[in-house]
Write a structure and sequence with these properties.
The complex is a heterodimer. By secondary structure, chain A is mostly helical. Chain A contains eleven helices and five strands, in the order ββααααααββαααααβ. The longest helix of chain A has 29 residues. The two termini of chain A are about 30 Å apart. In chain B, helix 5 crosses helix 6. Classes of the chains: A mainly alpha, B alpha+beta. Chains A and B meet through strand 1, helix 3, helix 5, helix 9 and helix 10 of A and strand 5, strand 6, helix 4, helix 5 and helix 6 of B.
Amino acid sequence: MQIYLPIAEMAVPGEAILLLGGLVGFLAGVFGVGGGFLTTPLLIFMGIPPGIAVGTQASQLVASGLSGVLGHWKKGNVDVRMGGVLLGGSITGSLAGIFLFRYLEHAGQTDVIIPVLYVLMLGSVGLMMLYESFLTVMRHGEKQTSAPVPFWQKPFLQKLPYRMEFQRSGITVSAAVPAIIGFIGGLMVSVMGIGGGFFMIPAMIYLLGMPPLLVAGTSLFQITLTAVFTTMMHAVTNNTVDIVLAALLIVGSVVGVQVGVRAGRKLSSGYARLLLAALLILVSMQLASGLFIKPVELYMTELR
Amino acid sequence: MRILISACFLFFTLAVPAMAKSYDNSIVTVDLASDHVDITTGFNGAKLALFGMKREDGDVVVVIRGPRRSMVARHRRQVMGVWTNYASVTFGDVPVYYDIAIGRPLSAIAMPDVLREQGIGLDSFTFSHFGREDAETVKAFREGLIRNKQSQGHYPLSPRNIVFLNGDFFRADFYVPPDVPTGDYKIDAYLFRDGNIIDRQETALRVGQVGFSAWLQLFAYTNGFAYGLVTIMMAMLAGWMAYAISRRN
């Protein structure tokens, strides 16, 4: 059934959008990732303007983030103080991203820069995960021989100013480090329409040395609030949030998550990561081919 | 029976001339089955039926024009292996939608310069442009823009046919795609004889969102903050529901 999107001013096949939302929810259920990395490029493939794809995706992150963070909050797995510092960074990053996005739209480069960013990010994260999960699957049962010095204990990180104590996480670290991590995460939300968990979670583990138990909850806490802020900014400044598109995506993902969680229980985590890595590499290759293969039509047009 | 006949007589002597009054002295007359295209949430393109009548010999040409907007055409070039948007030309007065119906080929109807003057046919388009690009470049960009519009279905690949139902009464069928640009459209009917225009009649067509869809768009553009708030509330409610369902299991 075709459904007309009032802000995008175009009709889309409603089932396809529901299915897309469902797929993203399924991935979230199985792998615990946001899935924005799939939605934004696929929406753009369907002909939805990149601005609207990114802006609407932010509102979908609100739904998926909230459903994730509530469970962690109940169990007390959220470091609110750390989340607050991360949030300070990510709101600044999100604002910077919105202006960056505006500039790119004006320069007519969004349809090039966004895929390039996706290829770089998905490609590198996918390859890293592939390598890592390959090792864990291979070494099945073996024990790690030597533990390297964790990055967060390196002396130069200890010397940075504005040191703050995070009691819940049991660490003392310069507030600049989480603020910068948050800034990059916020940029990802507003420019690429993804939560940035790919980047945030490893950064919080390796750069901050946070206990893994608190990492997921804290990053979701931060992502949810950043997504609320970003949705509002896109709605007010760019008029790029399509509520009909958002509703379709969200309904699909709510259903998809339930299916995904059940499927995820049957999958060992090593193989799940291997599959996710393969998926990331596939999506990035698909996007890359669009960038490197000569387009049929060398001209493109848009309203000014 | 007598009464019926006299009623008919009265109708034809009084009502019909009154109805036809606005078209009194025009040689070509057109009208749409509906003077608006309503875009609702279930909109999936629309058919437009146009009926017309000509009172003298000649060729009829019907043109639909959307509102004029400023558009930018960009040319892709390979930079470090990646196809990026490189040079661009901004055109000032591009009709966002254009369609044409004819009875026989335009070349047989009038000379190119007559057609160009009236803006009939895609070859007649000369958009105003900003910048100092040379004529050759501008031409290439204009053709690129027209190809783009054609592939979107906003410009015709080939003209539509005017079908004559009898000698003077004709019909033309148009189709607007689901992503038709909104705004006030104009439909012009021309009557050509011996390569010259002898009559022209204009009628208006409004293409716009109506109902819930229109209300949402107005809401989003006039009160972005409240609209954003509603979107966020909806997302939060859905997120909370997803959490509640998963906890129950």
